Each structure stands twice: as structure tokens, then as C-alpha cells.
Automatic annotation (TrEMBL):
InterPro entries: 2Fe-2S-bd_N, 2Fe-2S_ferredoxin-like_sf. The keyword Cell inner membrane does not apply. Residues 95-114 are annotated as: Disordered. GO terms for molecular function: iron-sulfur cluster binding; oxidoreductase activity. Keywords: Oxidoreductase. This is Proline dehydrogenase. It comes from Streptomyces griseofuscus. Pfam families: Fer2_4 (PF13510). Transmembrane segments: none annotated. The keyword Oxidoreductase applies. The lineage of its organism: Bacteria, Bacillati, Actinomycetota, Actinomycetes, Kitasatosporales.
Amino acid sequence: MSPRRVRAETDAVGRRERPLLITVDGEAVGGNDGQTIAGVMLAAGRIGWRRGASGAARGVFCGIGVCFDCLVTVNAERDVRACRRRARDGDVVTLQSRWPGMPGTAQESGSEDR
């Protein structure tokens, strides 16, 4: 999955950028209408947003809603799959972890859960 946005002038489908703004753990993150929450976060350079059992950063794994690696809390609703949920302007996203005592991670990248 590529974290790059397709610019409107080069989009063969003809979509036009309509900006939106979500908040991730208190930080404003910009995206485009139609992007998933995972897409907004990836385009902003956030590739890890929770921790696995080993403590390694985790983010999107399958990207199609099968693996549950991208779970976040959206507008106080827990266990939302970020790869399946379209971002809406004003969404409040909170990172979460399945493992007690291990908070999500907003900025860490490059680690894999082994």
C-alpha cells in the first residue's frame, strides 16, 4: 500500500481533492475526502500507530479489513478498522493497543512485530 496521494491533475478517474481534517491523539492531520483513516495517516507519514505483544510498532498489515492490525478508536467508538473506515472531517481518532499497559504509538515507524 502506497502512502502517497494521487494529485487531482493526474488522477485518471477524475476525482477532485476536497480537504478534510481529523485529529489523531490531539494532533491535526489533513487528508482528502474519500480516504480511509489509514490512508490519511499513511499519507501523513504515520506508519505505526499501536504496539503488538512484543512492543513493536504496528499499523496497516492487510489493508482490506481482514487482519485487525489497524484498530483505532474513532469518536469514542473502539475497535474501528482504520483501513475500512472513511475519514470524515472532524473525526477524533485515538490510538489503542490490545495489550494492557502498552499504549499506541503515533510516530514510530520501521519496526515489525516478530
